[in-house]
Amino acid sequence: MGVLEDRVAIVTGAGSGLGRASAIAFADAGARVVLLGRRVDKLEETASLLMARTGRAALVLGADVTDEQQVEDAVGAVLKNWERIDVLLNNAAVLEQGSVLELTSEEWQNQIATNLTGPFLLTKSVLPAMRRQKYGRIINITSSLSRNGAGGFAAYSAAKAGLESLTRTVADEEHEHGILVNLYNPGTLRTGMHATGKDPATVTPDIVRLASLSFGGPTGTIHSYG
Length: 226
Description:
The chain has 7 helices and 7 strands; from the N terminus they run βαβαβαβαβααβαβ. By secondary structure, the protein is an alpha/beta fold.
């Protein structure tokens, strides 16, 4: 029996990088995995890898996390298929360079929408089911830029700072309902965002641990690799 046996876990941005690695790790731990993202072809690749490795079929849902109706439809499909949602990993993100002076309002809004509004919409949508179950684990992927900032990454840094505040707020609101909400900073990973860094699979044991926290575990806290 895995530590996530028969738990239902939604992974956003599951078509590549940390999302793909986490989805496979969740399945290895026994979870029924929902792969959510905009590129269905990449999600199907992840589903094939997951099936080959674990023999478990994933639920593939094409959705834009910035679109409230698409998010609600996706969560509805999960509940129709598996009747519960135990884990949400808010991993989907975009990283585009641009100083405050250089960024257009459209570029700013695009990063805020994916990196902050998306996690808000997913969290809001899964909370009713988690409250009914009196159980839920939400993990939001953050970055050191949330606290330190960096020239040329104005929108990304601001969005991640907002995500950290949102995480602490939801943790405070939902603790009495058995829902734990935490942040995870994986450091630099070798993904589509970065040409160098750790293999995303290196950090997935930490993410599985946060997804399987027992009642009374930490909430509203930041966890980091290493």
